[in-house]
Amino acid sequence: MTEHPEVSSTPVAAAAPEDPPHTLGFHRLLDRLERISGVVFILVVLLNFASAAGRYAAGTPILGADEVQVFTMIWLIFVGAAIAAMRRAHLRMDVLTASLSPRWAWWRHLGEALLMLGACALMVGVSADFTYQIYTMEQKSDAAEIPMWLPHLSVVVGFVGMLLCSLLELKTLLAQRLGSSTHA
Prior knowledge:
Elements: H1 21-58, H2 65-87, H3 102-137, H4 149-183
């Protein structure tokens, strides 16, 4: 399993060896998704190379290769964003808030989780609606004739992943608060 060091100063971090087995299984799943994404990225690079070689050596590129490359990269970006959110590996600007007391840090973390929850829920709704509109229009890409709802679905999938992550984050924060208040 890939090592994922703690990347945040917040109380919730990546799985540690003492985490419950179901958490470790979840992180193994993320590791597999990362590996699959890496293989898919390599295949996209190879497709790009083959298309360029065909263009310069034979005068004919692979028809639709550019569209496949772009749409695959869009999927990789949104799946990667969800994985990064689940691992808490996304960019953070916590220089000023790193020195907060544990109480204020918890409130800041709660605010982040609520903002993330709201933003992701909004994006899921908007992108799902748009994806459905594209689906009903039966629009296809020009060269590869890929149904255009497929690349748009990546936005929905990515934000659903981030939404689930923020729900889990909120659950963990509230459990921490309830646990600390019962022991106080």
